[in-house]
């Protein structure tokens, strides 16, 4: 049983993940966000969950007073579990004993609501509530277990000797699930996938039977065991068996969670056919259904993927949690196959979806992440939940508030995605100042310190800390966008084309390997089949997608009349990217279709672009990622 | 009390509508559709409403057996009323006695379900059902009354002496509404506007108090009397008072029905401020939130208007019923103000939304009307309702099946929109072969026959039938697109610029006035703020928007790689418009954003374009209205 302190610990695969005890992010972009997460977000989330009664639901269930008075949506238990998972990783990361006590207090309240047979859900099965499992389509009971299991796994792997009882709660619930939905039981699945990856992980940490239950759920999915309730069975991926599907579809969070769990099952059962199907799904989804930000799920209706190349900027849904799900899916494929393309997408999604959601203060969030804001967002209420997909600035809370704890658990465990090992060495996937102390399977010590100001600068310096008599291989990812990168080793400098670059040697303490990534801003053109952004380009710099915000325009003019002068090039001044814009004043007409609309350039100005993840931190503005070309 | 056999009969305004006894469509495009409507659609609709139990709901309500077994959605009563309205117009149009008997039979079943106090709805208030008016947001009770009233008005105006009892049913229900929601009663509105225009019309035909009730509903709207239930109060226009709003927003059908009723109220109460507000709403909606087809409501979520210029082609919702509602709104403004722009939009919407919905056979419908079909539609089931917004070919029925009877009532009453009179003459708004026999207010006879092959040809020939000693004025609309039109009178030929052109004379029997409209295909460019179709053009011919269907491409290639060679011009051959296309073969790439994608033209071919309303009548295909420019 693997108890590496990491969210995903496969028993086989190309790469082995490292635990939070083996790798820490020590500074820079992500350490700053981890600090905000620890000092502001976790408390903010706990406060709102108390205030909204989502934690109190467990007290009421334990006291038998739930009937007719339960707070929140049907899946609110899961938000509490996501918070527990985030707290567990954070305690594992920092040994924060105050946080540990808060964690234990919530676990106690959760555990009190568990029924003798292991069932645990505050929304079903008690007097005045609907019967257990009477609404698999929308009830989210198994989905909630999934997040419970992930919380328990996080705790078991970071504090294996903790006496808080969370693992026991999870195992009793998991046994109940196997009892109820196992062979001969209810032959169906949950409307919201999530229990699948969670059961595998629980199985990896405890007992194989949970993996088998996950495999059963994956095999059942797509066979139409759920009713067609309005949005169609594709909404919850019950339209096509997982191994027959060629692309992600339907609800984007559901699709990614299911895909992640199916990779887990494929890996644990050595099911190469299933893994190949998921690889194809990933490839097609990335090539045809993903925003330049890495965001997935373009449609508001059903929070879902559109058809291929339906990627509107101005109604981009790009749910934050779909970004988290996409990282989960890609990470599992990376561990299984070792290909850098997965880490490329993870990096893109982390910088441009996961980092975009929370405000700088860590106490307000985007649930959706549009790529084009046409009207200045409104300031959401500070003291009430906001609609999840409203066109507002980041909001402190939502009636459906999965993004805050989902971002929190991702940030708290982020170090786990920095590096891996294999039999012969270590692979760096994400670039951040980091401390890495691990051993390869044969006992060779691999100890590195990484220094970098990435993504502000493109130099990544890895210094070997300990001497080891035997050679090993250090591999660094060169992002697909990084044309012209170079690697400097103690011996030489060499070109580092996109993909990976490796150095194998008998490293001595103090040896330095430096990757130089080209960080000049670059212009990206969309596939011509993405009709929504025809005639536009995006500006990117390193892993960051940039955008134009109206607060940077003279007179805070809105962004509808801007045209990028591509010929004028992009410049960097004082760490900001400047673009030359020609601004036109669109004429109002009674009917917007007719003879060609001549555009009179009114002004020509240099305007700074902003990292997309930073937008809307300076008050209401209009914004666009895709800039029409002059 | 006005009993002109027409859907809208204001007591004042710039223009006076004609009744179905005064104007008939005698041939051509619309007569053919009226015939299909009469011979196929009405029976098809009645069959499905019986089959689905929507008419049977009234039997069950009368028998007291509704509890727990009612069929259909909460608004299905209204569909039966829309069918009754369509039948009433059709009986008025053609004196079809067999249809009249079917009409009477349904009226009898409806009437049996009415309660002693006038309440009539099969979904509320009986044992096992929720209480009356306990769900104004979603219950649709007043909405259903609205369609009941419109059916009763249609009957009262076409068969004023009928003894079927429908008017009595409507008046009892209307009295109950006034009793319940009048001054001192429930101070709220219905989540779905519709009762407002219906009450005004019922008032115009019977008693003023119904107009006053409509005025009360219009004034209450926008004051937040409805709960904010998820989609926001803009969804049902309860966000801003009608007289303060500047543009239509929210659910597009609701928005148009409310606007129509508000115009009615403004006209009957001589409320110029309210009328001015609605005029502004119309102008802004047309300039910024309307598709080139006239379609309105661009968003699937909430079937709603988007922000200004959010008009995606590939996810155009453009609900058929929103088109019907837009015609209702525009027609009322036309009667009030006489401006040709309203008839322009009506024409555009009739040809490109209302005519698009039904199949050639009149037994299948589009509920939504996309402007870009990316994957070939599937053939919907013949024996089961389809999802309303599915990407299929036209479907025989939907669980929400408002479009079939809404189109039917529009087609059956279509002659009413052809012409109007004022104190000095007659105005032709829509061009179809027609027989017009009316008198002006002072008794002057105006009798015209219109001959035309419009829109196939651009010549509209109006022949005066009867001699009259006194002069009068014949006014013809020149559509905004018709640059270079000419008018030929008995005396001369003259240019006819867009707007209206008038001839005032002492017409003699046999006098001919001919309008020559230029019908060459033309290229329309979108306002540059409509980001979704940047770099594309649409091709129009007369009032028809054209499209490219893949069934017309070699090998039925899909339409994603086509580029229009604008320089090559458009040609007409054998009545079809030919465009020169360069077809490219888009290359599949792993990541769809990067360096410019060079497009290699693979073929250059002349391809026929199809009238948009005709598309998808030749089996599954991909389609696009907006053609990227080469």
From TrEMBL, chains A, B:
GO terms for molecular function: hydrolase activity. InterPro entries: 6-hairpin_glycosidase_sf, Beta-AFase-like, Beta-AFase-like_GH127_C, Beta-AFase-like_GH127_cat, Beta-AFase-like_GH127_middle. It comes from the Bacteria. Residues 521-628 form the Non-reducing end beta-L-arabinofuranosidase-like GH127 C-terminal domain. Signal peptide: none annotated. Residues 426-519 form the Non-reducing end beta-L-arabinofuranosidase-like GH127 middle domain. The keyword DNA-binding does not apply. Keywords: Hydrolase. Residues 22-415 form the Non-reducing end beta-L-arabinofuranosidase-like GH127 catalytic domain. This is Glycoside hydrolase family 127 protein.
């Amino acid at each position: 049983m693997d108890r590496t302190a990491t969210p995903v610990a496969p028993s086989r695969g190309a790469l082995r993940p490292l635990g939070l005890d083996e790798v820490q992010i020590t500074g820079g972009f992500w350490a700053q966000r981890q600090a905000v997460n620890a000092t502001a977000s976790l408390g903010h989330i706990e406060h709102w969950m108390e205030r909204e009664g989502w934690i109190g639901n467990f007290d009421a269930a334990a006291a038998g007073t739930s009937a007719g008075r339960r707070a929140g949506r049907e899946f609110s238990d899961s938000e509490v579990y996501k918070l527990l998972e985030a707290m567990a990783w954070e305690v594992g990361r920092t040994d924060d004993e105050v946080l540990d006590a808060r964690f234990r207090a919530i676990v106690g309240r959760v555990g009190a609501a568990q029924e003798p047979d292991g069932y645990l859900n505050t929304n079903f099965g008690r007097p005045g509530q609907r019967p257990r499992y009477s609404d698999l389509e929308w009830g989210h009971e198994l989905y909630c277990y999934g997040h419970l299991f992930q919380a328990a796994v996080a705790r078991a792997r970071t504090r294996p000797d903790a006496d808080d009882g969370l693992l026991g709660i999870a195992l009793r619930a998991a046994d109940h699930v196997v009892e109820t939905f196992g062979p001969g039981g209810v032959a169906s699945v949950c409307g919201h996938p999530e229990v699948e990856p969670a059961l595998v992980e629980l199985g990896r940490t405890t007992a194989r039977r949970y993996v088998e239950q996950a495999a059963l759920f994956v095999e059942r999915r797509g066979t139409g065991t759920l009713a067609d309730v309005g949005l169609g069975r594709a909404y919850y991926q019950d339209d096509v068996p997982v191994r027959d599907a060629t692309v992600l579809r339907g609800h984007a969070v559901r699709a990614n969670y299911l895909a992640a769990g199916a990779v887990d099952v494929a890996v644990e059962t050595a099911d190469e056919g299933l893994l190949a199907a998921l690889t194809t799904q990933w490839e097609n989804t990335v090539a045809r259904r993903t925003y330049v930000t890495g965001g997935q799920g373009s449609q508001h209706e059903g929070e879902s993927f559109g058809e291929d190349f339906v990627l509107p900027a101005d109604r981009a849904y790009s749910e934050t949690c779909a970004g988290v799900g996409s990282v989960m899916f890609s990470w599992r494929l990376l561990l299984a196959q070792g290909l850098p393309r997965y880490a490329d997408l993870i990096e893109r999604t982390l910088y441009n979806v996961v980092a975009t959601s929370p405000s700088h203060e860590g106490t307000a969030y985007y649930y959706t992440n549009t790529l084009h804001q046409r009207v200045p967002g409104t300031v959401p209420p500070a003291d009430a939940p906001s609609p999840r997909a409203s066109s507002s600035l980041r909001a402190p809370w939502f009636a459906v508030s999965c993004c805050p704890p989902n971002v929190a658990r991702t940030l708290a465990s982020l170090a786990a995605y920095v590096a891996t090992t294999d039999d012969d060495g270590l692979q760096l996937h994400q670039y951040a100042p980091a401390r890495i102390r691990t051993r390869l399977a044969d006992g060779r010590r691999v100890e590195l310190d990484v220094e970098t100001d990435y993504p502000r600068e493109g130099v990544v310096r890895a210094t070997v800390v300990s001497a080891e008599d035997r050679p090993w291989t250090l591999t660094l990812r060169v992002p697909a966008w990084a044309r012209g990168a170079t690697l400097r080793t103690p011996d030489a400098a060499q070109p580092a084309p996109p993909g990976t670059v490796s150095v194998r040697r008998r490293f001595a303490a103090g040896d330095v390997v430096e990757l130089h990534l080209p960080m000049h801003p670059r212009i990206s053109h969309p596939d011509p089949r993405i009709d929504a952004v025809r005639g536009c380009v995006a500006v990117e710099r390193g892993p960051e997608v940039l955008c134009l915000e109206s607060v940077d325009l003279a007179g805070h003019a809105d962004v509808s009349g801007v045209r990028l002068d591509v010929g004028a090039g992009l410049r960097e001044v004082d760490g900001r990217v400047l673009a030359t814009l020609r601004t036109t004043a669109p004429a109002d007409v009674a009917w917007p279709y007719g003879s060609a609309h001549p555009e009179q350039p009114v002004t020509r100005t240099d305007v700074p672009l902003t990292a997309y993840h930073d937008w809307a931190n300076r008050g209401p503005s209009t914004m666009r990622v895709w800039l029409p070309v002059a």
